[in-house]
Each structure stands twice: as C-alpha cells, then as structure tokens.
Design brief:
It catalyses: L-aspartate + ATP = 4-phospho-L-aspartate + ADP. This protein is an alpha/beta fold. It is built from 13 helices and 18 strands. The longest helix is centred in the N-terminal third of the chain and has 16 residues. The chain binds adenosine-5'-diphosphate (ADP), aspartic acid and magnesium ion.
Length: 437
C-alpha cells in the first residue's frame, strides 16, 4: 500500500479530529467477525448483540464480516472445477460472494434489533485496490459515503470483507484471510478508536491452540512478533493486516466472539515498548503449505544462483528458504522451498531455463511431504543460543532438519510433515512457553 495514494492517511487515529468535523457524530469502532463467528444465523445474532452493545456505548460501528465458515473454500473448489486455467477476474467475482451474504444478513439482524444498519459491498464503499486479482492490495478507502450515512443517523455500516474494486472496475479479493486486512484498513481510513478482530479463539496464543493444549494466551504481543508469526503460518491474523496496523498505528485487538459478552480481554497487538516483560521466544508457528525442491547437479559457477532464482521470480514463485549443498567436481545440488501450489510453476520455469541453456541440471526433485516450523521472538536480538536450543530440542525427538533459515527475530526449519505436531510441542516445552517470565 502506498501511503500517499492510500487515502488511509486521510484520518489517521493519532489525528484526534473531533468526530463531528469528520462528518460523524460519534467515535468510530471497527469490529470484524470471522467465518466461524457468522457461520449460522444464531451466531450472527450473537455477533450483532456485541455490535449493539458498542452502539449503546456511544460508538458508530463499522462491522467487517467474513463469509460463513467453509463457504469460501467451497467457492474456490467450484472455480477449480471449471478448468485448470481460469480467468482470475472471474475467480474473484465468485469467491468474493460469500461475504455479500453475511453482510446483508448482519445488517438485517441489526435492523431487527432496532439498530440502524446498512450493508456495503467493497465496490460500493468503494474499497479501491490494484488489479492483482486474488491477492489485491488496498490503495484507497474514501470515507465520505459511509461518514455521510453516519451523519444521517445510521449507526452501523456492515462491510463485506475480503473484497474491493480494481481501477478497471472489476471485483478483486485480498488473498485468503483478507477480511482481517479489510478491517485494519478501515480502522486506519476512518481514524477508528480501535479495531477488534473477533474469532474462534480468545486471542493470540504462544502457538496454535489446536496443536498444543499447553498453548498460553498472550495478553500483549509486539507488532513485529505478530508479523513474523502471521507470515510464518499463524493464520489468526492475515500478515498484511498486521503490517497495516503497525504502519498506521491502529490499536488492534484479537478476541473471541464466543465468550460472555463482557469477556473481552483478548490480546492487544502493540508496540514493543508497551510490553514490560516477555519471553525470549514469543511463539511457535508452523506452515503445512511448504514444498522442498532440489535441483540435482547444477554447475557450481559464479552466476548460477541468479540463473536459477531469476527465472523463478519471473514465474511468480515465492522462494523462501535456500541451501546450496557441498560442491563436488564443480557440480552442486541447490535446494529451495516454495508454497505447495507453486511447485508446478517452479518446475515449468526450471525446465524452460534448462531448455534455453541458461542452466543445466540432472534432475529436479519435489518433496511436498514437508512442513515449516518456526520460533519467533524479539528477545533473540539480545540472546544467543536460541538456534542451538531449537536444534537440540528437535534432535531429542529424533526429528531430522532438512533446511534452516534465520533472521533477526526468527528461526525456521523444514522437517518431515509427520513430525509437525511433535516439533511444535517439543519447542513449546523447550522454550518454556507454557508459563510467562
Ligand atoms: P477467522 O475465521 O475468525 O478469521 P481463522 O481460522 O482465520 O479465523 O484464524 C483463527 C485460527 O487461527 C484459530 O482457530 C487457530 O487455530 C489458528 N491459530 C494459528 N496460530 C495461532 C496462534 N498463535 N494463536 C491463536 N490462534 C492461532
Ligand atoms: N472468506 C475469506 C477466506 O476464507 C476471507 C476471510 O475470511 O478473511 O479466506
Ligand atoms: Mg482469518
């Protein structure tokens, strides 16, 4: 997202303009409800009650809804069944539609509760994006239309998450999990007091609570840690939403829509400085969506990495980890990882590079039976020994590490997928994440 064009800078949260100068009478709150929180009419009613309570507290509310859980997957499958090489514009037209249903149903439910509400599809706002179908980036959210309605007495704008409109006037979507990003972008564009992400867990945990029953809920987590956890697979927030919240200083909370109405503690995603004490490792993330590709016997010469990774980048393959193996008689094996659904694209690009004589290799072996497990923590900046502790914990369980990458605040390893749960639990134990410092 580009700051200036974004239009999100129109009313950043720090700019404490009085609400009536913005055209609205009340402070604004953004509340996002994920798929499980709107999975049935009964759950929509429960979510609407929470919204009604915030209206009673004096807020004008922007509600962002996901599609009912399972709905987007179903739509993606329908598209896949039409053929292998479908038009990305029509993919977006289809998969965005789940959110239209829940937005209308939420508005109707609120109206039934005598809360003045109206639904908005992305194009009606309009939420303007670029043209990168299925992974579009938000460019601008002009607040005028919705603010004018708030000015006329509407109390809740229910916006279909995940969708926008391209400069060509086509419907776009923001990538899976994109409603989180819709929510944060609205909070930034409208200078909302807070952005509350209601989901099926009561906050951000030290690891996915579905994998480890020892996972502990964090009261606070730093933006940078959340960003790493999200990008390494913790799907509780879409990565882009965390980036936006960090950049536009959005006060971001993750909480459950299933608890008692007053049970709203959740997790606050905040600046590092706002956290008093934290463990060296904040959390463990995993991703099943990894494949390990090995080019067998490529020439070990200057320029070989560029000759391999240039064509992969051009083909849109998101290479994550890279290892070059020991060279023997001027030849070496090059291993890299990429998302599983990009394996075919990577193979095609490498074959084309071989055919054109840019590179030469004996074979390309794809291993899709792997997963990536990562530990993340700002404390790693000042603590040595996290990597060795991680490797020791995995080795104690007999888990072989295939590829390793590190950055300032994270260490990731690629391992056999059958060890995923075991690895996550072993690392959670080893770094003592069950209890706070
Ligand atoms: P929604 O439909 O509300 O957007 P998601 O399924 O996208 O919900 O995200 C919530 C899920 O994220 C949880 O059910 C949980 O299994 C998973 N998750 C993964 N890692 C974490 C973590 N560290 N903390 C909390 N939840 C996590
Ligand atoms: N419904 C979309 C998805 O399942 C967007 C979202 O829920 O955030 O990916
Ligand atoms: Mg989600």
């Amino acid at each position: 997202m580009h700051g200036a064009r974004l239009g999100l800078a129109a009313a950043p949260r720090r700019d404490k303009k009085p609400a009536d100068e913005r055209g609205a009478k009340m402070p604004i709150l953004v509340m996002k409800f994920g798929g499980t929180s709107v999975a049935t009419l009964d759950r929509i009613r429960r979510a609407a009650k929470r919204v009604g309570r915030e209206v009673a507290n004096g807020y004008d509310v922007i509600v962002i809804v996901s599609a009912m859980s399972g709905e987007t997957n179903k739509l993606v499958e329908f598209v896949g069944e039409t053929g292998q090489f479908y038009d990305a514009r029509e993919y977006d037209a289809v998969v965005s539609s789940g959110e239209n249903v829940t937005a209308g149903l939420m508005a109707l439910t609120l109206q039934e509760m005598d809360v003045p509400a109206r639904s908005w599809q992305g194009w009606q706002v309009p939420l303007k994006t670029n043209s990168a179908h299925s992974a579009a980036r938000i460019e601008e959210i002009p607040p005028e239309n919705i603010l004018a309605k708030f000015g006329e007495g509407m109390k809740v704008a229910v916006v279909a998450g995940f969708q926008g409109i391209s400069p060509e006037g086509r419907i776009t979507t923001l990538g899976r999990g994109g409603s989180d990003t819709t929510a944060v972008a609205f909070a930034a564009a409208f200078g909302a007091e807070r952005c509350d992400i209601y989901t099926d867990v009561d906050g951000v945990y030290t690891t996915d609570p579905r994998i480890s029953d020892k996972a502990r809920k964090l009261d606070r987590i730093a933006f940078e840690e959340m960003l790493e956890l999200a990008s390494l697979g913790a799907k509780v927030l879409q990565t882009r939403s965390v980036e936006l919240a960090m950049r536009y200083k959005v006060k971001l909370r993750v909480l459950s829509s299933f608890g008692e109405l007053d049970d709203a503690a959740g997790t606050l995603v905040c600046d590092e400085d706002d956290i008093m004490e934290s463990n060296v490792v904040a959390g463990v993330a995993y991703s099943r969506d990894e494949a390990k590709m090995t080019l067998i016997s490529v020439a070990d010469r200057p320029g070989i990495a560029a000759a391999i990774f240039g064509p992969l980048a051009e083909a849109g393959v998101n290479v994550d980890m890279i290892v070059q193996n020991i060279s023997e008689e001027g030849r070496t094996d090059m291993t890299f990882s990429c998302p599983t659904d990009q394996v075919a694209r990577a193979e095609k690009a490498m074959q084309a590079a071989k055919d054109s004589g840019e590179i030469n290799f004996h074979d390309l072996v794809a291993d899709t039976d792997v997963c990536k497990v990562s530990v993340v923590g700002i404390g790693m900046r000042s603590h040595a020994g996290v990597a060795s502790q991680m490797f020791a914990a995995l080795s104690a369980e007999g888990i072989n590490i295939k590829v390793i990458t590190t950055s300032e605040i994270k260490i990731s390893v690629l391992i056999d997928r059958k060890y995923l749960e075991l690895a996550v639990q072993a690392l959670h134990d080893s770094f003592g994440l069950e209890s706070a410092v």
